[in-house]
Specification:
about 90 residues, five-stranded antiparallel beta sheet, alpha+beta
């Protein structure tokens, strides 16, 4: 459980930095950031690729407007909770 908390703290800090350093327009969001809420972090360990395992942890967070997902943030960390990559995916309806 302690390791999950560490991963979540690192992921949250990367998401906070992304949101702090970009505008809604930069992130292709249709709603102001202050009107969005966040869901729970989904954590997946030892990510598998088609040909071989990658020893990384994926953390996924949805940003919500009411109950609709408007964006998904995914960050990949190595087994020491060090940043590998991130993705911010917006949803347009």
């Amino acid at each position: 459980m302690q390791k999950h908390i560490c991963f979540i703290e690192v992921a949250r800090s990367h998401l906070d930095a992304l949101l702090r350093n970009n505008t809604e327009k930069d992130l292709d969001l249709t709603h102001p950031l202050e009107t969005l809420s966040s869901g729970a972090w989904k954590i997946e360990h030892n990510i598998q690729t088609k040909h071989h395992p990658i020893y990384a942890t994926s953390l996924t967070m949805n940003l919500l407007k009411e109950s609709e997902v408007v964006a998904t943030y995914i960050v990949y960390l190595n087994e020491d909770a060090i940043f590998i990559d991130e993705f911010f995916i917006t949803q347009h309806f």
